Amino acid sequence: MSIRVVVADDQDLVRTGLVMILGAQPGLEVVGEAADGLTALDVATRLRPDVLLVDIRMPGLDGIEVTRRLAGPDVTDPMAVIVITTFDLDEYVLGALRAGARGFLLKDAGPALLVQAIHAAANGDALIAPNVTRRLLSTFADQAPVMPVQPVDPLTEREEEVLALVARGRTNAEIATELFIGLSTVKSHVASLMTKLGARNRVEIAMWAYDTRRARAD
To answer: Using an 8 Å Cβ cutoff, are 124 and 201 in contact?
Structure first.
């Protein structure tokens, strides 16, 4: 089945371009568009797409607030949201991820990375543009912790290894290759980490690793 996507961007040219790019990709279907935050919230709520692609700067509601309302900590059934922007400012990135976004991309990331991020979000993974990942995650070390300092249950040695790689922005496939374990095993470890840390996705796992000083930027 195709991954259903809603595209929200207040610039007509950008939105049209994104719709054309995504519409040409096999396995993706653009089911809705929005030119402002309030419309994005309404369209996404009505259509329940697999992934919402939302610009960070929009009239009405900005992308961070839209993300918070659809995927925030208090949302019972959070939506997969990817935030896109022209600006890779730390406050934007942090705000988006704190609000529950599963991805953060710059608009010049290119079609391949955009499609990869959508597939990752639809599968419960998260993807952040490589050129901002390390700088972004390293800033978590300077933020006040937002999750428990200690996990509910102690992490195993293997979970600590997976945690460190997730914090560096590695995908499940990359972790499997680096640790010489199966992809299903990686997914099991990530699921266990989410349970033990009270995290809803791998972005929050990475945030926890930096918040608790378990990880450092390379």
So the answer is: yes
Q: What is the pLDDT of residues 61-70, one digit of tens each?
A: 999 999 999 9
What is the DSSP code string of the chain? Answer: -PEEEEEE-S-HHHHHHHHHHHHTSTTEEEEEEESSHHHHHHHHHHH--SEEEEESS-SSS-HHHHHHHHHSTT-SS---EEEEES---HHHHHHHHHTT-SEEEETTS-HHHHHHHHHHHHTT--EE-HHHHHHHHHHGGGSPP-S-SS-SSPPPHHHHHHHHHHHTT--HHHHHHHHT--HHHHHHHHHHHHHHHT-SSHHHHHHHHHHTTS----
The verdict on 123 and 27 lying in the same domain is: yes
**Same domain assignment for residues 119 and 171:** no
- Phi, psi angle pair for 6, to nearest 5°: -115, 135
Residues 121 and 37 in one domain: yes
State mean pLDDT over 35-54.
Answer: 96
Residue 134 counted as domain residue = no
- State whether 88 and 24 are in the same domain: yes
Domain limits for position 198? 146-211
- For residues 119-141, give the mean pLDDT: 68
Q: How many domains does the chain have?
A: 2
pTM for this prediction: 0.73
